C-alpha cells in the first residue's frame, strides 16, 4: 500500500566521486532489511550500480531511486552520480526532492564538485543535510571537519550524530537528540539556536526562556531543515554499519515530508513568472518529468514526481509543453531500474509512466483544465564534440534514431548534422562522457561508431583589393559557350558580408546576364580557393566583359564570373579566419595561475577574473580550435576540480604559421 503524502521522505544522496554515496545507499537498504547482505560496488553487488557501464567502472553513472519502507514512512532515496561529467543526473534528482544529502569524505570534505552540488541544492531551495564518511581513516578529526564545513557553508551546519573516537578507534556513534556523549550539550545548544530562527514566535520564546522545550525541539526540526535554518550533520561508516541506525531514524522522524516542505512555484503555460503556489494537497493533479529512459521492451519510460493531487490508471493527463492529452494506461512504482504496475500515485510520489513516447525531460503534466508549468532545471552546456560515423554502412539510417533516444535521456548530450561540413557531430561533457555514450549506443541500439575531431569552421577572406579576369570559351560542334568577365574584389569590414556592384557600362555585358555574374560570384563564396572554406566579407564589382550573340548564355557568365573571382582572390592577400569563443572557467582559487597559463598556451586572452567563496571565475577569449580538448586539459590541471563553458564570439585572422599548416592539411585531405 502507498503511504500518505506526509509519510513520504524524498531525498537525493549527492556528492563527489568516491565519497561513499552508493555505499551509504547500500547500507541503508541493508539496515532496513531490503537486502540480505551489504552490497558492494567493488564486487558488483550494489543495488544501485546495475548498468554494465557502471559495473565495469565501479561508479554510478545515472540516478537510481529506491523506495525503502522505514516504519510508518517511505524513504524515497536517490543515488546520484558523483562524477562531474554526469552532473545533470544529480541536478535533475535534487530538483524533485525535499532534502539533498551531501556525502563528504572526511579526508577531503570540500571538493569543487561538492560545492557545486551544495549551491545547486541551495538555489533550488530544498533542505540540505551532510553525511561525513571515512572517519575511520588515519588522521581524521570529526570536529575539524565540522569546523571547515561551518566555515564554508555557515552556522546552520550542526552535528546531530558524532563519532565516539577518531580514526581507527572509531567504533560507535553518539546521538545529540538523545543527549549521548560529552559533546551533546554543545551541539544541542547549537541546533536550538538555529532551529529558533524558523519563525518569530519560536525565536521570541527561545530568547525569553534561553532554550526550547523538548516538544518544541522535536516538532520544529523538520521545519528548520525544510527552510534551510538547520543543516544536520551525521557521522557514519557505511561499510561497518556505524551511524546508519541513527541516520535512518532521523530521516524517518525529522526529514521534511512534501507536506512539511509546502508549496512549489509554478507558472501559467508560456510564461516564466512562477508565482502560482502548488500545494501538496488534493487539488488537480500536477507532476514533473525528471528522467526519461528508452527501454527495449517498454519503449519510453518517463519518471515523474507528483506535486499535487492523485493520478490513477487510465486517467487522462495533459503535457503542458505540447498541449496534448494522453491516457495513462501503464502506471508504475519505481525500485532502482525495476518498475512494477501500480493503480494510484499521490502528491509526493516518485513514479513512472510507460509507452507514451512524447514526454520529455522537464515537462509538466497536469489534469485536464488545470494547466500550469514548473520551472525546468538548468543544466550545464556540453563542450566536447566529436565527429562520428557508423562502422557498418547499414547503420547509417539507424544512427540518427538511436542518438535521438540517448539525447532524450541526457540533458548534456547534443547531436546535429553540420550543414557546412556534413559531419554528424555529437557533443557531451568530456571524452569519458562520450565514451560511455558510444558504449550505450552499441549495447542498446546495436550501432558501433568510428569517431574523430570535428572540422573547425574556418572562413576565408581578403586583405587587399585586386582585379580578376576570366574568358570562358567552349566549342565542340554546334552552339558553343562564351563569356568574358572583368571584376574587382574588395575587402569589407568584419561581419559586413557579401556585396555585388554592377559597374558595367556601354553594354559590354548585356543586362540579362548581369544577375548571372552575381550568381557565379556567390557560388565562388561557398568554397574558397585557399583551403576550401567559405569566403566572407568581400565586395565584387563587375566592370567589363564581352559576349557573343549566339554562344553567350547564363551558364557561361556564371562560370566566367566564378573563375574571375578565383583569379582576383589569389592576388588579394587571402587569409584564413578562425572562430573565437568566450570562455568562462570556474576553479578553486589555488589553480588560478595554472589555468591562466594554460589559456595563454592556447592563445587565449584573459578578459576578467573574480573570486567568490574561494572559487575563481576566469573569463577569456580563445580560438575554438584550442578548446576542443580543453575539458581534458582542465581536469589534468585541477585534478577534476574545475568546470568551464564556452560560446561562439567572433572570427579573427589565423597566425601565418598556423594558416600554413591548416592549408597544407586541407590540401592533403582533398588530394
Q: How would you sum up this structure, described in words?
A:
The structure is a single chain. 29% of the residues lie in helices and 31% in strands. The protein has 18 helices and 34 strands. The strands form eight sheets. The protein has an eight-stranded antiparallel beta sheet with strand order 16-15-21-12-13-20-17-18. Strands 2-3-1-4-5-9-6 form a seven-stranded mixed beta sheet, sandwiched between helices. Strands 26, 31, 32, 33 and 34 form a five-stranded antiparallel beta sheet that branches. The protein is of the alpha+beta class and 671 residues long. It is elongated.
Which key phrases capture this entry?
31% strand; seven-stranded mixed beta sheet; 29% helix; eight-stranded antiparallel beta sheet; alpha+beta; single chain; 671 residues
Can you give me a brief rundown of this structure?
The protein is an alpha+beta fold. It has 18 helices and 34 strands.
Give the low-confidence spans. Answer: none
Report the count of strand segments: 34
Shape: elongated
* Structural classification: alpha+beta
Q: Which sequence of strands runs across the widest sheet?
A: 16-15-21-12-13-20-17-18
Q: What is the oligomeric state here?
A: single chain
Number of helices: 18
Q: Mean pLDDT across all residues, rounded? A: 94
Biggest sheet overview: 8 strands, antiparallel
Question: What percent of residues are in strands?
Answer: 25-35%
Return Rg in Å. 32 Å
Indicate the percent of residues in helices: 25-40%
Amino acid at each position: 500500500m502507498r503511504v500518505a503524502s506526509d509519510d513520504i521522505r524524498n531525498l537525493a544522496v549527492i556528492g563527489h566521486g568516491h565519497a561513499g554515496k552508493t555505499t551509504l545507499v547500500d547500507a541503508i537498504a541493508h539496515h532496513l532489511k531490503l537486502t540480505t547482505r551489504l552490497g558492494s560496488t567493488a564486487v558488483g553487488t550494489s543495488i544501485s550500480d546495475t548498468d554494465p557501464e557502471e559495473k565495469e567502472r565501479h561508479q554510478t553513472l545515472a540516478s537510481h531511486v529506491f523506495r525503502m519502507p522505514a516504519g510508518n514512512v517511505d524513504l524515497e532515496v536517490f543515488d546520484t552520480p558523483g562524477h562531474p561529467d554526469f552532473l545533470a543526473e544529480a541536478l535533475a534528482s535534487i530538483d524533485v526532492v525535499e532534502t539533498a544529502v551531501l556525502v563528504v569524505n572526511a579526508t577531503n570534505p570540500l571538493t569543487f564538485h561538492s560545492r557545486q552540488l551544495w549551491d545547486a541544492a541551495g538555489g533550488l531551495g530544498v533542505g540540505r543535510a551532510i553525511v561525513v564518511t571515512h572517519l575511520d581513516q588515519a588522521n581524521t578529526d570529526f570536529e575539524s571537519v565540522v569546523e571547515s564545513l561551518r566555515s564554508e557553508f555557515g552556522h546552520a551546519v550542526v552535528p546531530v550524530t558524532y563519532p565516539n573516537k577518531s580514526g581507527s578507534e572509531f567504533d560507535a556513534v553518539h546521538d545529540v537528540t538523545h543527549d549521548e556523549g560529552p559533546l551533546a550539550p554543545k551541539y544541542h545548544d547549537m541546533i536550538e539556536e538555529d532551529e529558533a530562527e524558523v519563525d518569530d514566535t519560536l525565536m521570541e520564546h527561545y530568547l525569553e526562556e534561553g532554550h526550547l522545550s523538548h516538544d518544541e525541539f522535536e516538532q520544529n526540526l523538520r521545519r528548520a531543515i525544510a527552510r534551510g535554518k538547520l543543516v544536520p550533520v551525521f557521522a557514519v561508516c557505511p561499510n561497518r554499519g556505524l551511524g546508519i541506525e541513527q541516520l535512518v531514524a532521523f530521516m524517518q522522524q525529522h526529514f521534511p515530508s512534501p507536506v512539511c516542505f509546502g508549496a512549489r512555484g509554478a507558472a501559467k503555460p508560456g510564461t516564466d513568472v512562477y508565482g502560482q503556489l502548488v500545494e501538496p494537497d488534493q487539488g488537480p493533479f500536477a507532476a514533473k518529468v525528471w528522467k526519461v529512459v528508452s527501454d527495449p521492451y517498454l519503449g519510453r519510460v518517463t519518471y515523474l514526481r507528483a506535486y499535487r493531487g492523485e493520478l490513477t490508471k487510465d486517467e487522462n493527463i495533459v503535457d503542458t509543453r505540447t498541449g496534448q492529452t494522453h491516457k495513462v494506461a501503464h502506471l508504475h512504482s519505481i525500485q532502482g531500474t525495476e518498475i512494477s504496475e501500480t493503480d494510484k500515485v499521490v502528491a509526493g510520489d516518485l513514479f513512472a509512466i510507460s509507452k507514451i513516447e512524447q514526454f520529455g525531460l522537464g515537462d509538466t503534466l497536469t489534469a485536464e483544465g488545470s494547466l500550469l508549468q514548473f520551472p525546468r532545471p538548468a543544466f550545464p552546456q556540453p563542450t566536447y564534440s566529436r565527429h562520428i560515423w557508423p562502422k557498418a554502412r547499414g547503420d547509417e539510417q539507424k544512427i540518427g534514431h538511436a542518438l535521438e533516444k540517448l539525447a532524450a535521456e541526457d540533458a548534456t548530450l547534443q547531436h546535429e548534422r553540420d550543414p557546412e561540413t556534413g559531419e554528424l557531430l555529437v557533443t557531451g561533457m568530456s571524452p569519458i562522457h562520450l565514451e560511455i555514450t558510444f558504449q550505450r549506443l552499441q549495447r542498446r541500439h546495436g550501432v558501433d561508431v568510428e569517431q574523430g575531431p570535428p572540422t573547425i569552421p574556418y572562413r576565408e577572406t581578403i586583405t587587399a583589393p585586386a582585379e580578376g579576369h576570366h574568358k570562358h570559351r567552349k566549342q565542340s560542334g554546334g552552339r558553343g559557350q562564351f563569356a568574358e568577365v572583368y571584376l574587382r574584389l574588395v575587402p569589407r569590414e568584419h561581419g559586413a558580408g557579401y556585396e555585388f556592384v554592377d559597374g558595367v557600362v556601354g553594354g559590354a555585358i548585356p543586362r540579362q546576364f548581369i544577375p548571372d555574374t552575381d550568381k557565379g560570384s556567390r557560388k565562388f563564396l561557398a568554397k574558397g580557393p585557399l583551403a576550401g572554406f567559405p569566403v566572407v566579407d568581400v565586395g565584387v564589382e563587375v566592370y567589363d566583359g564581352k559576349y557573343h550573340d549566339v554562344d553567350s548564355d547564363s551558364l557561361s557568365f556564371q562560370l566566367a564570373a566564378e573563375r574571375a573571382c578565383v583569379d582576383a582572390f589569389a592576388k588579394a592577400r587571402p587569409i584564413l579566419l578562425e572562430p573565437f569563443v568566450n570562455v568562462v572557467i570556474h576553479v578553486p582559487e589555488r589553480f588560478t595561475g595554472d589555468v591562466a597559463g594554460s589559456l595563454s598556451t592556447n592563445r587565449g586572452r584573459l578578459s576578467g577574473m573574480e573570486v567568490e567563496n574561494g572559487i575563481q571565475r576566469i573569463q577569456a577569449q580563445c580560438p575554438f580550435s584550442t578548446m576542443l580538448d580543453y575539458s581534458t586539459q582542465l581536469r589534468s590541471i585541477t585534478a577534476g576540480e574545475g568546470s568551464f563553458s564556452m560560446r561562439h564570439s567572433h572570427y579573427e585572422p589565423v597566425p601565418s604559421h598556423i594558416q600554413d599548416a591548416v592549408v597544407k592539411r586541407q590540401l592533403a585531405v582533398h588530394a
